[in-house]
From TrEMBL:
Keyword Kinase (UniProt): no
Protein's organism: Amycolatopsis carbonis
Any one GO MF annotation of this record: transmembrane transporter activity
SUPFAM superfamilies in UniProt: MFS general substrate transporter
Subcellular location, record wording: Cell membrane
Record membrane topology: Multi-pass membrane protein
Protein name: MFS transporter
Length: 405
């Protein structure tokens, strides 16, 4: 017999579990993007190449995907809390390795630990949010909005906090990781206080399953392609934009450089909250066009040396990312049969994470021959061109259906 879920525990306990899930998601996603503001500083300290910089970003993504696939189903068996604690402790260890790092190998170890922490903790924390919000539609919408806010604005806050602490505080290389480690430790205490019954709903662990049934395959191909491009932009920007902006502005101010990335991600977050009335497929098509426009502005800003164009470039790419991500996920959720939803959504996130980490490595490899700035511009131009090729196909799909829904 499965253990009771949070819907059966007292309201105060459910509220505590909801807060613990939200705090865990926020702590993990803030920490995941925290190093983005510091890559230029780390490069000057340890003397590694632009390729290593992009690999440091990508290695965490490579670890997150398999960890997510295992941890999500496992949390159904052992409960949400143990997986959340494992994830938080792993991430805390990653923070401390960053603080103690004496070479590039330490940095890779730190990113692997952070990737494990993200994979183990994020899936369980998301599940705890859904468990504790109640089974009615209103509660599940609240859980979804909370998760969106924690993930998106956590990703936006990470580089901003890292840049501010590194620029204006003592110990510029270590302080942000120390502060985040303290925050994670506080979240661990909060999670420890949640009910043990929070989350065990299955009798045994089920093997992670990916797949796309024929009935949604066409929709998945479109949504997956759109999301790959949108997350490619976010991954590329997270890995290199602070360094690129520093060069464009001719400034070594880490907070200003990180602010560009924060602006892009925060814009995506606000768009995700405001795009609910837009038909999902139309949102993807419009998002691709806006994403391409933002990338074009970034290319022009870099080639012409016009620093102020960075602001509309970040606003454009953020808007495009938010529209594509919200539209793709909403469409897949609606058209996929409930029995297949877990496999389809899991496949969708694997494609998105491949976009998040894959093109970044391309930037790093190209930087060996052309430099980081030129490599970023080249990949941005390629991704923008792909957006412009795909957008008409999505508009044609809308026309084929005869209904934008």
């Amino acid at each position: 017999m499965s253990q009771p879920g949070l819907a059966e525990v007292p309201v105060s306990a459910a509220r505590g579990a909801f807060a613990a899930g939200a705090a865990t998601l926020a702590a993990l996603y803030v920490g995941n993007n925290l190093p983005s503001a510091l890559y230029a500083l780390l490069r000057s300290t340890f003397g590694f190449s632009a390729l290593i910089q992009t690999l440091l970003y990508a290695v965490a993504v490579a670890v997150i995907v398999p960890a997510l696939l295992v941890a999500g189903p496992l949390s159904d068996v052992v409960g949400r809390r143990p997986l959340m604690l494992c994830g938080l402790v792993a991430f805390l260890a990653g923070d401390l390795v960053f603080v103690l790092a004496t070479g590039t190998g330490w940095l890779f170890l730190a990113r692997v630990l952070q990737g494990l922490g993200m994979g183990a903790g994020a899936a369980a924390a998301q599940a705890m949010l859904n468990d504790s919000a109640g089974q009615d539609a209103r509660g599940q919408r609240r859980a979804s909005r909370t998760a969106t806010a924690c993930v998106t604005f956590g990703l936006a806050l990470g580089p901003l906090a890292g840049g501010l602490l590194a620029q204006y505080g003592p110990l510029p290389r270590q302080l942000s990781f120390l502060v985040h480690a303290v925050a994670v430790a506080l979240v661990v205490l909060l999670v420890v206080r949640t009910p043990r019954a929070a989350g065990s709903v299955a009798k045994r662990w089920r093997q992670p399953r990916l797949g796309v049934p024929p009935v949604v395959r066409r929709t998945f191909l479109i949504a997956g392609a759109c999301s790959f491009l949108a997350w490619a932009v976010l991954g590329m920007f997270s890995a290199v934009v602070p360094s690129l902006v520093s060069g464009l502005l001719g400034s070594a101010n880490l907070a200003v450089a990180a602010g560009a990335l924060t602006l892009m991600i925060a814009t995506s977050g606000f768009v995700q909250f405001g795009a609910g009335k837009l038909a999902p497929t139309a949102g993807q098509a419009i998002g691709l066009v806006v994403l391409a426009a933002g990338l074009a502005l970034l290319v022009v800003a870099n080639e012409a040396g016009v620093a102020w164009l960075v602001v509309p470039a970040m606003l454009g790419t953020g808007t495009g990312h938010g529209l594509v991500f919200t539209g793709a996920l909403a469409e897949l959720t609606v058209v996929t049969p409930p029995a297949e939803r877990g496999a389809v959504i899991g496949s969708y996130f694997v494609v998105s994470y491949l976009g998040l980490g894959g093109p970044v490595i391309g930037v790093g490899l190209l930087s060996l021959a052309h430099g980081l700035s030129a490599a970023t511009v080249l990949v941005a131009a390629v991704v923008g061109g792909c957006c412009l090729v795909l957008a008409p196909l999505v508009f044609l799909e809308i026309r084929r259906r005869g209904n934008p829904q």
